[in-house]
Amino acid sequence: MSAGMGKTTYKRLKGSQSFRQRLLLATLSSTAVSIDDIRTDSTRPGLRPHEVSLVRLFEKICDDCVVVFNDTGTRVTYKPGIIMGGRNLVHDCGLSRSIGYFLEPLIVLALFAKKPLSIRLKGITNDSKDPSVDTFRSTTLPMLKLFGVPTEGLELKIESRGVAPGGGGEIILSIPTVQGLKAVTWIDEGMVKRIRGVTFSTRVSVQLENTAIHSARGIFNHLLPDVHIFTDHRTGPQAGKSPGYGMSLVAETTSGCFISTDTAVSYRGGNEEVEMEEEKTEIVPAEDLGEQTASALLGEIEQGGVVDSVHQGLLFLLCAACPPDVSKVRVGKLSPYGIGTLRNIRDFLGVTFVIKPDPSTETVILKCVGCGLKNFSKKVS
Amino acid sequence: MAAESGSKGQPHKSHRSRQAGPSAKKKKNVSSNFDNENLTVEQRRQRNPKAFAFNSSVKAKRLQARTVEKEQRRLHVPTIDRTYGEPAPYIVLVHGPSKVGKSLLIKSLVKHYTKHNLPEVQGPITIVSGKQRRLQFVECPNEINGMIDASKFADLALLLIDGSYGFEMETLEFLNILDTHGRPNLMGILTHLDKFKDVKKLKKKKQQLKHRFWTETYQGAKLFYLSGLIHGKYLKREVHNLARFISVMKFHASSWRSAHPYLVADRFEDVTPPEKVQKNRKCDRNVTLYGYLRGCNLKKGAKVHIAGVGDYSLAGVTSLADPCPLPSAAKKKGLRDKEKLFYAPMSGVGELVYDKDAVYININDHFVQFTKTDEENEELNRKGKEPDVGEVLVRSLQNTKYSVDEKLDKSFIDLFGRKPNVFSEAQDGAKDEQKSIEWDNEMQTVDNQESGKDSSSGETDADDAEGIESFDQYERVNGFDNMNSTMQPSSSKGGLTEHVEYYGGRMRRKAVFGGDADPGNSDEDANIDDEDESDANDVYGDSENLSSEDNQTSGSDVSDDDDDEGHHGEHMGNVSKWKEFLTERTVSRQHRNLMQVVYGAPATLSTSINRGQEHDDSEEEEFFKPKQEGKKNVGEGTEAEDVNVEDCSKFVRSPKSWKERDVVESIRDRFVTGDWSKASLRNQISEFNPEDGNAVFGDFEDLETGEKYRNGEMEDFDKKQIPSENDAVIEERRLRKLALPEHLEENDDKQGKDFHGSKANEGGYFDKLKEEIELQKQMNIAELNDLDETTRIEVEGFRMGTYLRLEIHDVPYEMVQYFDPYHPILVGGIGFGEESNGYMQARLKKHRWHNKVLKTRDPIIVSIGWRRYQTIPIYAIEDQNGRHRMLKYTPEHMHCLAMFWGPLAPPKTGIIAVQSLVNNQKAFRITATAVILEFNHAARIMKKIKLVGYPCKIFKKTALIKDMFTSDLEIARFEGAAVRTVSGIRGQVKKAAKEEIGNQPKKKGQLREGIARCTFEDKILMSDIVFLRAWTQVEVPCFYNPLTTALRPRSQTWQGMKTVAELRRENNIPVPLNKDSIYKPVERRPRKFNPLVIPKTLQEALPFASKPKDIPRRKQPLLERRRAVVMEPHERRVHALFQQLQLIKQAKMKKKKLKNEQKRKELEAQKTKDEEISRKRKREERRERYREQEKLKSTKKRLRS
C-alpha cells in the first residue's frame, strides 16, 4: 500500500482574480492549486500573456514545479516545487504589463528561496497600471528591511527604462534569503518630513520633466519646504523603445514610513493589439502630470497609515508570513487589492486579521498572528 | 578566591590548619621561611603585585579568550515561549521492558497523588499534582512502534529497569529513540531490588547499573531505587520521593514540538451514524479524539497526522471544558483532597464525560460521590448537602417556569420605538444568556466561557449600528424587567464555587471553577466596564469585578452614571469627555463589521446577529456608518460577482484639488510643518482604543450630538493629550517591566547605569535578545487578550493547553476495530509543505551497535517528525568536488548521506531508522540515526561505471574498439571521452567507426553497430582491454509505505517490503556469483620477448656506434686460448710458494673467524643473563615505588576526609 504516492489534491479556485497572489501563496504554503474558469465569458478567454509570463517566471525560479494549461487557457493547474532562486537569471516580462506586476510577488517569493536571487527583468519599467520600478526601489525595499530582511544583497538597479508600447527597459533585482521574518508593530505613521522623487523621460525632451517638477512643487510648497525631485533623462539604448515620461514621488515620515505614488505617460503608437483591450488614453501634459502625482501623494498622506494603498497587500502578506507573534499595522482605507490579499491569506495560510477602524484618524488597524512561515529549502550545514 | 566568592553567598567553611602532628611541624618549617602564609590572596596580591601579574601577554590573551569562549558556550539562543494560558499537563511516560513494573508504578503514583486505587492502567491518566501542575501518566507500550510514538510526546520519561536482571535492549533502544526525537527529561528507576539477598551484591549492582546508565545518558543522571513491594505496591516513602522529584522538574520542548501542534488522545469515540455501520460493517468511520493541545496553537481546518493511521484534515475542532482543571489560584498550602482530581476515561474512571453537545455521567458504584465544593459554599447550601452539577441541572429543569416558546411569545420586536427596541434587544440577549446558562449547566463550563458568550451577545449589539447598549445596560433592563438579581458568593477562592442567580423567578446555580475565573481574563474586559483602569482592577481581582457588576445591576441609571464617572475619575471634569469615548465606542463596535466585510459573515453566528444585520440593512441611515465602510459594502457586492477582476494593486481614488487652501490645511498636521502635538496624538491615542472603547455607555441621541460637535471633540482630544500620552508611557513601562527578568529589574533599581555598563560587557547582546523576546511575548498576550473568544480563536487558533475534541471523518474501520487503549494515539499537526512528497537528503550514521552495514536500496523503516514509514534509501558520500557518489553500503564508522523519497520534513528533523519490528529479536533493532539536511526535488547521486571494450582492429595509434558501446548513438554520446588500456595507454573516443575503414565484420552475425574509433597516445595491442570510466546518475526510487500499525491487531507485526537478502533466505536462492569477481592466485609466466629486430632502413640511418654489428662467428678459438704456457723452474717455485702462503692465510682466517664466532656467542649469552637480572631488579623497584605512592595517596585521602 502506498497511499498518497504521486497523488496530489488540488485546491480548487475560480477566475483570474488575484492570480499573482494565488500562485505566490500556493508556492509558499506548498499547496497545489487548480484555477478554473479563467475569463470563460470574455471575448478573449483564457490567460493573458502577462499571466503566462508570470507562470514562466515562477517555473524559472522554482525547481520541480508542474504547470498544466488546458487548450483554451481557461484552466491552470499548478503544483509548486522548491523555490531555488539563483544568480544571473533573465526573464522577459513581455509588454502586456509592466515589470511592477511581476515584482510584487517576486520579492516575497525570493525571500524564501534556497539561494539568493538575482534576476534581470526585461520589459516595461513604468506604466500607470502597476507601481513603477522607482517605487519599488524607494518604498518597497525599505519596507522589507523592517521585517528583518538583511540590507546587503537587497538591491534594484534600473539599467534602462522602457515605457508602454515598445518596452525595452531592464532592471536587475537581487534579493537575499531569510530564515524567517520578524513580527512588527508598526502603527506610528509619523509626520511627513521630506518628499523625494524622481522623474524620467525617454525619447522626449528633458523640458517635460522640468515642467512636471515645477507643477508638483507648486502643490507641495504650501506644506513642506523639503522637496527634492530628481530627473532621470535617458537617451539612446537606455531609453527603451518608446517615448514617454513620468514621475514617482515618495514622502518619508518622521517614523520612517515611506508613502509613494507614481504616474507615467507614454505615447502609444499604432499598436493595435494593445489598444484592442483598453481605450486609448489621452496623453497628459507634463504640467498636469506633476500636479496629478503630487495630488495623489497628498491623497495617500491624507489616508494615513504606515504604507500607501499600493503596498497594503504586500504589508499584509509579510505580516502573515511572520512567526506566530502578533503583528500590528496601521493602514489607511483598505484598498480592494488589500482586501483581496486578506482573503487569499486566509485561504492559503489560514491567517485571519483582526481589523479595527480607528475613528479619530480614519485609519484601520490590523492585527494578526503570523503563520510561522520558515525557509525550509535553505540547506543546513 | 574562595574568600571572595564566599563573601557574596553562603560562606564556605574555612580551612583549619593542623595544630599538631607531623604536618603541623612541616608547616611550621615552611611558614618560618614565608611569613605571608596565613594571608589571604588579596593581601598577598597587595604585598607582592608582581607575583600575580601575567608573565606573558600571549598567555594572558589566550586565557582571556578561553574564558570568553567558555562564557559563550554556555549561552543558548533564547526562544520565545508561546504558552500564554495554563500549560497542558506534562506527560510522564513510563517505559520499560515487560514485567518490570510499569503499571504498578503508575498505580502507585496515582495512589500517592489522588488516594485512589486505579484498577487498570489504560490510556493516559491525567491528575492534578499540585497547585500549578498537572501530570499525565502514559504507559509506553513495549513494542518498537509504540516506543517511537511515545518518544515524540513524552515530557518526562521514567525508564524502569529490572535491577535483578540489568539493562535490557528495550531501554537502550528507547534511549536512542528519545535522543533523535528531542530528548525529554529522563529518570531511571531500578525495580526488583528485593531479589537480592546479599546487601553487598546489591550495592555493587546498583553502582554498576548507575554508571552504565550514566554512560548512556549523561553523568549524574538520576537513578531511583524502588527497593521492594509492600501489599503489592511500591513503598510509600519511595513513591513519595519520586513524586517530589517529578514535581520540581522543569520541562523544555524540542524545536519540532514547539513548532507543531500535537495531542495525545485520552479518549476515543466512534461517532459514525449507527445505520451506516449496520449497512456496511467495514465502512469508513467518523471518530472523535479528545486531548490536551500541546506544542503550539491549532487552527481550525488544520491537517493532522494520526500516528499509525495516516493524514486527515480535521472535520471539526471544539474546545471543551477542562476535565481536570487546576485548582483555584487562591493562597493555601497544599491541595485539598477534593481537588485531587484525576481523569482517565480509557481506564474507566472519572464520573463525567463531556462531549460537544452532551454530558455523560458514568457512576461506578464505589465512585458515587458528588462534585466537590468548598467549605465556603456550605453556608449557601440550604439543604446542608453538597449539590452536584448534574443535580443542579436536574433541579433547574424541574424548576423551569417558562418554556422557550413561551419566552419567544413574550418578546416582541418594535421597529420604530427606541426603548422597546432596546427591550427586545435585551430579550434577545437575555435569551442568549439563558441559553448560555443552560448550556453552561449542561456542560459544566466555567465562568469565563459564559462571559465569552456574553461578550458575543455584546457583539450582537455591536453589530447593530444603532446599538449602543452595553452589556451592563442590558443587565439593567433585565433588572427592572425580570426582577433579576445576581447573588454572588463573596469568596471565589474555592476550586468549585457556585454562582446563584434568580432569573425570571427561578433559581439557577452555575458551577464556577475559581481557577478559571482568574483576573485579567481575556474575555471579561470586553464587557466589564471597569477594565480600562486595568491596573487597579487587576489588583482587586475577580470578586471585586463581580461585586461592581452587582452594583450596576441593582442600581438605576443614575447610579450607573455615577459609577461610570467614578471609573473615569482620572480624566474628570470635562462634560464632553464621554462623547469621545462614545465615538470610539461606536467604532469599536464596527470592527466586527469590518472583518465581516473582508472575510464574509462567519458561519457560527447566532440568529440574533443575523436579525440584527437585517435590521441594519433595512433601516440603516448612512449617517451612522463611517464613510469608508459604506463604500466597502458596496464594493464588496460588486466584487463578489466578478471572479475575473483585473489583478492590479493600484487603486485610484478620485483626487481632491489640493490647490485650495482649506483642503491643504486639512492635512497640515500630517507634515512636520504642522502641529506636532496633534500629530503625535494621532499616532498614540488609538493604541488604547480597545481599552477605552468599552468604557462609556451613552444614549443613542448623544451620538448625534457627538457627530455634530466634531470640532469640539477635536479640542477635547487636544486637552486630553497629555494624560493619554502619560498612559502610553505608563503602558510601555508596564510591558517592559513585565518583560524584564526579575534579577535584572532588581539590579536596575539598585545600581542603575553602572550595573548596565558591566552587564553589557558580559552578555549584552544575549540580554537584549532575551528582552526583545520577552517584550514580544508580553505584547502578544496584551493584544490577544483584547479580543473576544471567537475572534481570538479565529486569529490564533486554539491555545495550547485547551482540552480539545477533534472530529475526523472517513478513517478506516480498522482503526476502531483494532483500537487498543494500551497504545496511546498521537495526533500531530502538519506544517506547510509537510504533506507533499519529495526527495530528502539526510546525514545518516549506522548505529554502532547494529552489527551489519546497511545496503543501498534495502528498505528501511524511518521515523521522521510524526510519521513512520518504510522507504528505500540510496546512500552516498560527497566527494571532494561536490559530487554525490553512490555508496553500495554505509560506511562502518562514518556519516554518509542518504537520499530517499517520502513526505517532506523540514531540515534538522531527527530520524531514527529500524529494519525489523519484531519483538523477539535479540539484537539491537535500531539500525541508524540521521538528521535531515535539505529537501530538494533534484537529488543528483552519481555512480561510477566502467565500460569495457576490446580492440578489433588496430591501425598505427588508432584502434577500433568493439563491445564497449551497443549503438552508434551511444558512441555519439561519448565522443571525446577518455579511455585507457590496462597497460596505461591513454586515449580518446573519436567517432563511430565507418564501414570502409577496415570495419568489416569477421563473422556474419557480428553487429555492425557500436564500434568506436579511438585514438591512443601509443599503439595498443590486440591483447589490451580498453576501459572507459564515466559517471551515471542514480535514480532514487519513489517509494514510501506508511506504517499503518494502528489498523491491524497490535499483536501482529507489520510486514512491509522485504530486503533482497530476506527474500533470498526465504526462497533459498543463492547469492549470484560472478566468476570474474572471485579472487584467484595470479600466475605470471615469465614473459618471452622476441628478439629485437631493427628494420634495415633504420639501420642504415643509425650512426655506426648504434648500428647492430654483424660479426660472423669464428670457427677457431683465439690465439690466446690455443697457446700453452710453460713456466721457468724459478717461476714455478715462486708460484708454488705463493699458493702455499695463500693457503696458510686462508686457514688462519678460518680459525680466527670460528674463534670470533664463539666469543660473540658467549658474550651474547652473558648479556641476556645480565638483562634478565636487571629487569627483575627494575620490576622490584617499580613495585616498591608504586606501593609507596599508593600508600601516600590513601593517607592523603584519609587526611582529607
From TrEMBL, chain A:
Coiled-coil segments on the chain, per record: none
Span of domain RNA 3'-terminal phosphate cyclase insert: 188-302
Residues covered by the RNA 3'-terminal phosphate cyclase domain: 13-355
The keyword Nucleus is assigned to this record: yes
Keyword Nucleus: yes
GO terms of biological process kind: endonucleolytic cleavage of tricistronic rRNA transcript (SSU-rRNA, 5.8S rRNA, LSU-rRNA)
Main localization, broad class: nucleus
Subcellular location: Nucleus, Nucleolus
One Gene Ontology cellular component: nucleolus
Pfam families: RTC, RTC_insert
InterPro entries associated with the record: RNA3'-term_phos_cycl_insert (IPR013791), RNA3'_phos_cyclase_dom (IPR023797), RNA3'_phos_cyclase_dom_sf (IPR037136), RNA3'_term_phos_cyc (IPR000228), RNA3'_term_phos_cyc_type_2 (IPR016443), RNA3'_term_phos_cycl-like_CS (IPR020719), RNA3'P_cycl/enolpyr_Trfase_a/b (IPR013792), RPTC_insert (IPR036553)
Keywords: Nucleus, Ribosome biogenesis
Domain of life: Eukaryota
GO molecular function, one term: RNA endonuclease activity
Family that this chain belongs to: Belongs to the RNA 3'-terminal cyclase family. Type 2 subfamily.
Name of the molecule in the record: RNA 3'-terminal phosphate cyclase-like protein
Automatic annotation (TrEMBL), chain B:
Keyword annotations of the record: ATP-binding, GTP-binding, Hydrolase, Nucleotide-binding, Nucleus, Phosphoprotein, Ribosome biogenesis
GO BP, sorted A to Z: endonucleolytic cleavage of tricistronic rRNA transcript (SSU-rRNA, 5.8S rRNA, LSU-rRNA); maturation of SSU-rRNA from tricistronic rRNA transcript (SSU-rRNA, 5.8S rRNA, LSU-rRNA)
Listed InterPro entries: AARP2CN, Bms1/Tsr1, Bms1_N, BMS1_TSR1_C, G_Bms1/Tsr1_dom, P-loop_NTPase
Signal peptide span: none
Reaction it catalyzes: GTP + H2O = GDP + phosphate + H(+)
Residue span, Bms1-type G domain: 88-252
Keyword Membrane attached: no
Polar residues composition-biased segments: 30-41, 442-459, 481-494, 544-553
Record SUPFAM superfamilies: P-loop containing nucleoside triphosphate hydrolases
Pfam families: AARP2CN, RIBIOP_C
GO molecular function: ATP binding; GTP binding; GTPase activity; U3 snoRNA binding
Cellular location(s): Nucleus, Nucleolus
A cellular component term, taken from the record's GO annotations: small-subunit processome
Comp. bias intervals (Basic residues): 10-29
Compositional bias ranges of the Acidic residues kind: 521-536
Biased composition (Basic and acidic residues): 428-438, 565-578, 623-634, 1155-1174, 1181-1193
SMART domains (alphabetical): AARP2CN (SM00785), DUF663 (SM01362)
Annotated region described as Disordered, given as residue ranges: 1-55, 424-465, 477-499, 511-578, 608-640, 1150-1201
Family: Belongs to the TRAFAC class translation factor GTPase superfamily. Bms1-like GTPase family. BMS1 subfamily.
Name of the protein in question: Bms1-type G domain-containing protein
Source organism per UniProt: Trapa incisa
Source organism phylogeny: Eukaryota, Viridiplantae, Streptophyta, Embryophyta, Tracheophyta
